[in-house]
Sequence to fold (939 residues):
Amino acid sequence: MTQALNMTETSPSAGSDASRRIVTFCVDERTFGIDVQTVREIKGWQETTPLPHAAPYVRGVVNLRGVILPVYDLRARIGLGTTQATAAHVIVVVDIADRTAGILVDTVSDIVDVPASAIRPTPDVERDHSGLIEHLALLDNEIVALLDLAAITQDGIVEDASSRHANAA
Amino acid sequence: MDFLDELKQSFFQECEELLAALEARLQALDEGSTDPEDVNAAFRAIHSVKGGAGAFGFADLVNFAHAFEASLDHLRTGRVPVQEAPTGLFLRCSDAVADLVAAARNGEPANKRADLIAELERVGQVLETPAKTEQKAPELTAIFDKLIAQVASGTVPGAAPEPVSAPAEETPWNPDDDPFENPRPAPAVAPPAASAAARPAQGTVVRIRPHRDLFRRGIDPRVLLRSLEAIGPLTITADVAAVPSLQELDVGDCCLQFDVAFEGAVPREAIANALDMFLDAQEFSVGGPEGGMAPSGAAPVGAAAPGGAPEVPASLAASLAAIAASAEASMATRNDAEGAAAPAAAGMPARAANDAGQPQRGGAPAGRAKQVGSIRVDLDRIDRLMNLVGEIVITQSMLAERARMLTIDEGTKLADGILTLTRQTRELQDHVMAVRAQPVKTVFQRMPRLVRELAQTLGKEARLVLSGENTEVDKTVIEELADPLTHMIRNSMDHGLETAAERTANGKPAEGVIHLSAEHRAGRIVISVADDGRGINREKLLAKARSKGLVAPDARPSPQEIDEIIFAPGLSTADKVTDVSGRGVGMDVVRRNVEALGGRITVDSDPGRGCRFTMSLPLTLAVLDGMIVRSAGERFVVPITSIVETLRLSDDTVEHLPSGQEVLRWRNDVVPVARLGAIMTDSPPSDETVIIIAETDRGDRIGIAVDDILGQQQVVVKSLETNYGRVTGASAATILGDGLVALILDVDTMPRLAAQQRRPLVEAMTVNKR
Fold:
């Protein structure tokens, strides 16, 4: 499947040997990427219904054609504060195991093929995002942080109401 | 999944239904029913299980089902009076069948239950004279010995390679394609049956021409013949004409045919009754002097005279034969009765008529017509349908909202249409829900036996009273109910009920009563298990919980809180670990199961008088009537069914307890107040002015304070768990007319959340109090 896409659409220079097709998007001038296979669709920002007892990066839920979709704020998740969402913001709808979730990002920038040789393990210095970044992809002009989607959506539910207040304080 | 697997799956599904039916009928018999239909239905159920199991080669299941069936047959034939039926044994056997089905389904080795088979075989034996039993076996064995000898010596016509076996190869098998009536084979050796038929017919003659798949259907011909032996004295002749040569013989095929000559006239119904459980109507026929039979020499009667009127003129038979002969090429593949009957008329004009198959054939559909027609549908498809209905409900509320934006004139016109649409949607929804709904009876009816068995094991006297068995709930919920219910009943039997001696000493009737009930309440199904036993021993429970570190040594939990400890993991209050419960699988597992279903379980104990466990489960995929409210800028849905009253709050009606808890005086009652905005959003508590008095599953009242009531509408319940997880305070979510999501409040958690909200304050103040 991936190979077929490679042949039809992309520059031959990328090479068809074990390259990964990545959707890249920006949050706060930084570039992140996820595997194109996990992306279901990309939709414009829509108002969410907040959920009680949830972590601050859980923006709430939206209606995705009759399905309740939780939306996670990537900016808040990586510790840069809550996104002031506008119509220009984008929700990337992704499949994570058997669940579907929305990731709120600033903009979606590109779809690129990254050869396996350009993908590196995350260096230890990448401390803040504790396990959120799976790999780094070294492109010609920038470095893309490949996200671990499961880690982003983990621990969204705050079990005890009191701890929520403790966190907020 | 390949085709065979699919077939297997549908067999297992069918088994579930058959087993349920079997159990229900046996249960009825156990409760003293003498209705022959109960016996017959039970027999049919196990027979169908056996048939299917035979087709898939589940030998252990076939064996067991066979023994079971044979034993039930004694009831049908009246050899064992229904009143004396060993229903306890039968109920245990129906359990064993369920186990065997499960083993077959999971591809696990099964316990063959030889013990039960032995018990089953004893049923009815007591009533038979030993001499008769002895006499039968050799007779049948002799037939088979003879048959084997014939095959071995090559005297079987089929064993000779050429002319006789040739037609068998060319002609596709046809149930009506009786070699005796087929003009072509001219067996060199006169088959024994032919000579039997040649004898002057004194008694009724039954000709059994089983389909080749007889063995694969799990039917042993000996059982067939025995069932006929029960009717009266007879002579059985095996007809081996259709047995092919050894090279061609497939041991899985049944090539045997039998002619059974009764010494006297036997009613056709008796024969049909004995055989129709094993054979299709076209697999056997009854002839000879018996009511409605044609005199010897008359043309055989085909479907042309289904009523059994045999007066077909010979000339007509002859012309039929002529037509048949001219169309012989097509005849070979035809499978209808005329096709087979016509050559029969030509070839064997003097044969005794054998129209028994016809009335039987006419009778079978009539019997079936009594049942309500049904089809098997994937749950998936119904789910999709239900989802679609949900979408329609949302669209409809969206339309209603748009209509409000129109001018009054246009809006009114549209409103009429929307009103009709609303009614129709609701009806549609009810019907789709009804498709998935099943009465809880299917689970409840397994419980009386559990109680009986436990009573025996534990040496207690107990009776189970069921109520609300017909309460319907979604099939998916039904399936999940069995485990928690079993645990709850075990718990009541083991820990709740006292021994008869203890009960009598305490002035209670010796027999304990467990009441299992179901009802619909607040858009949920509420199932409770109540016993009149000793109740929860709070001192013991608390001591235990302290020793296990579940409760802090200095904590002073309320009686209610102590009772709730019973749901804590790893707790067993029985003095010793018993077989019945207390092997680490306790009420904590029940609670986990129930919560996994989006339900809740609570306990109410009255020491010395009894204990009641109540679980409330959602009716999944339900659509509920909700009141849309607003608090802290967010909209929430309160299920209408839990709302008692709404009222506007004035300052003087709300009071503060020393704990900080706000309460409301309402109809001589003190109701705690839950500030919705503070509970469900991050906003600080505000002075909401509208109070919704709601009732929880336990019957507690709570005043939910909201900013505003926006309206009332039907909403579709959407799971939050699918993509997110459980949300405290909300049972689910829904999509409102504007396409945005609103949470559906879980009213039952409101009292706890209201209390939690004040918790810091409570702790601060209770330090002095205690």
Summary: The radius of gyration of chain A is 17 Å. Chain A has one domain: 22-155. The first strand of chain A starts at residue 20 and ends at 27. The interface with chain B takes residues 47-54, 60-63, 66-70, 99-101, 156-157, 161-162, 168 of chain A (CB under 8 Å).
